[in-house]
């Protein structure tokens, strides 16, 4: 198995990660995909300045990918916070061997994409819906004023 350095050797990946992290950059997401069907090397497949729906549209049903997304979460403009989401995508038609390798390789990707509030491993684009992800981020933040507590 290649090391994390080999797997993620493209300098564009580190730059894209820094761009997504920076409030000064308009880049809000990045997607990493495998260089080919048989390769374990990842390449920067794309970046964008839109929301999570824009990123999700780049994920194919027969491919594996890793994504990193910047999102704003808050109850109002005064409590808005920037949070990051790490996505491990294995489309519903992804080959079994690729899925098996991903469990190991996602750990290597995390050596580069280190800072995030939630990780979502999925093969269902519904789990990447903005409202669903925002709810996961709010839960990770602790306070959630959108739902009633029944455990008092």
UniProtKB/TrEMBL annotation:
Its main location: cytoplasm. Residues 5-138 form the ADF-H domain. It holds the Pfam family Cofilin_ADF. GO terms for molecular function: actin filament binding. It is found in: Cytoplasm, Cytoskeleton. PROSITE patterns: ADF_H (PS51263). One of its GO terms (cellular component) is cortical actin cytoskeleton. One of its GO terms (biological process) is regulation of actin filament polymerization. The keyword Zinc does not apply. Keywords: Actin-binding, Cytoplasm, Cytoskeleton. Belongs to the actin-binding proteins ADF family. Coactosin subfamily. This is Actin depolymerizing protein.
């Amino acid at each position: 198995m290649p090391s994390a350095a080999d797997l993620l050797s493209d300098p564009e990946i580190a730059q894209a990660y820094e761009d997504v992290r920076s409030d000064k950059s308009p880049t809000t997401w990045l997607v990493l995909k495998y260089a080919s069907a048989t390769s374990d090397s990842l390449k920067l497949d794309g970046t964008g300045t839109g929301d999570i729906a824009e990123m999700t549209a780049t994920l194919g049903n027969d491919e594996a990918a890793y994504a990193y997304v910047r999102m704003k979460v808050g109850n109002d403009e005064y409590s808005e916070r920037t949070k990051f989401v790490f996505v491990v995508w294995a489309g519903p038609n992804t080959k079994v061997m690729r899925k098996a390798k991903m469990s190991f390789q996602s750990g290597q990707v995390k050596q580069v994409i280190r800072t995030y509030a939630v990780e979502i491993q999925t093969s269902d684009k519904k789990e990447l819906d903005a409202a669903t992800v925002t709810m996961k981020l709010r839960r990770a933040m602790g306070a959630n004023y959108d739902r009633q507590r029944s455990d008092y």
